[in-house]
Specification:
The protein is mostly helical. The chain has six helices and no strands. The protein is globular, with a radius of gyration of 15 Å.
């Protein structure tokens, strides 16, 4: 059974369970990955959000016996697309409503095939590091449109040197 993410509290609970590694493997779905990406992008600058998602997935996979399951190119790809989506949707309606809209727009499992040719993502190089798309470029992230959301390619001068301290409610991560 998959976890309902219909309410903000549901998404916060998913994030808490992800952060403390108690999320059941069966609930670590594509939608859950997108929820984690969106939550961190709504709370941290893009570089730090990417670091936190990357580290979180690696910790989660190690805890659940799937260390080889991490894919750097797909993680960076989706973090970039979610950041671009957030830039185009600068007025959050609440994390659950935003997630529903995000999944409607970016939830197709074949989305990477629109950017990558067959086989490119299956390489060891793509799994271990960033490999740029070869079919079409990633959309730009409009920084000014998301200034209040924390989605930046670089931290603003006010944020420089100030780490993101956001954590899911109730987590000790």
């Amino acid at each position: 059974m998959t976890r309902s993410l219909a309410h903000d509290a549901d998404v916060e609970e998913l994030l808490r369970a992800f952060a403390d590694l108690s999320l059941p493997r069966a609930e670590w779905t594509h939608e859950a990955h997108l929820a984690v990406a969106l939550w961190y992008l709504r709370h941290c600058p893009l570089p730090e959000a990417l670091d936190r998602v990357r580290e979180g997935i690696c910790r989660y996979n190690a805890r659940h016996g799937a260390s080889a399951g991490y894919h750097e190119t797909l993680t960076v790809f989706y973090m970039h697309l979610v950041a671009a989506w957030a830039a185009a949707h600068p007025r959050p309606a609440g994390i659950a409503a935003d997630l529903a809209a995000l999944v409607a727009d970016l939830g197709a499992r074949n989305l990477p095939a629109r950017f990558y040719s067959s086989g490119r993502l299956a390489t060891d190089a793509a799994r271990a590091g960033w490999v740029a798309p070869d079919l079409r470029p990633l959309p730009p992230v409009a920084h000014a449109a998301v200034a209040d959301l924390g989605v930046f390619a670089e931290p603003s001068p006010a944020e420089a040197g100030t780490p993101c301290t956001a954590e899911p409610a109730g987590s000790a991560a």
